[in-house]
Write a structure and sequence with these properties.
Elements lengths: L11 E10 L4 E11 L2 E8 L5 H9 L4 H13 L3 H27 L17 E3 L6 E7 L2 E7 H9 L8 H16 L2 H21 L1
Antiparallel strand pairs: 1-2, 2-3, 4-5, 5-6
């Protein structure tokens, strides 16, 4: 590379691009971590330095780098791509949250989102009496928060192509689950029951 150190492709261990704020403009920079006989060396390059084009050509030859380039080009050339990605993330949000609960319950014997907690009957699965599918119970304190069966997971995956939940609906779901997992679940449910009872009484009086 003209004006730059000679770097063999198979010695590159890591590449990082970043933007540096200058007084009048932004400078695109690149750090290349290289394995050498004397240890690991980090080379710094930027777009105004001699040989910048050679650095880019070298990095583009790294395995998997072209895939990232193609993804960025799609994001640039398809205005609605980010909106599609956002919709897909909203479609899978609740499913992934439920799977996370099962994963933490099975692997760590904890309640998801509640560090150093002790899950109730971790690893125990029962047969759903209606579908025959294995079912996992997710609980916190003495309250059963959710039951997740293999059938539930399959049904949710089949429903992914449908209309995604709104951002407001997901925010409400996340807030409810955060409240349940971060506090005494019984207190939350008792407050909800009291609220519903007060509403029913006011409606009856009306």
């Amino acid at each position: 590379m003209s004006g730059q150190p000679s770097i063999a492709l198979d010695t590159i261990q890591e590449v990082a691009f970043f933007k540096r704020d200058e007084l009048t403009t932004d400078l695109i920079c690149c750090e290349v971590v290289v394995r050498s006989e004397g240890g690991v060396v980090t080379w710094f390059f930027h777009e105004e330095a001699p040989g910048w084009g050679d650095v880019l050509k070298l990095v583009e030859r790294l395995p998997g780098f072209q895939i990232r380039i193609d993804q960025l080009k799609r994001a640039r050339d398809e205005p609605d791509l980010l909106a599609k990605l956002d919709a897909d993330l909203r479609r899978t949000h609740i499913l992934l949250k439920r799977l996370e609960g099962v994963r933490v319950w099975l692997s760590k014997h904890e309640v998801a989102g509640k560090r150093n907690s002790i899950a109730a009957a971790p690893g125990l699965s029962l047969i759903n009496r209606y579908t025959g599918s294995l079912e996992f119970e997710l609980s916190h304190d003495s309250v059963i928060l959710d039951t997740v069966s293999r059938r539930d997971i399959a049904d949710h995956m089949r429903a992914i192509p449908g209309e995604p939940p709104t951002a407001e609906e997901l925010a409400s779901y996340d807030q409810i689950m955060a409240d349940l997992y971060s506090t005494d679940a019984r207190v939350v449910f008792e407050a909800d029951i009291d609220s519903n009872s007060d509403r029913d009484e006011s409606e009856g009086e009306g």
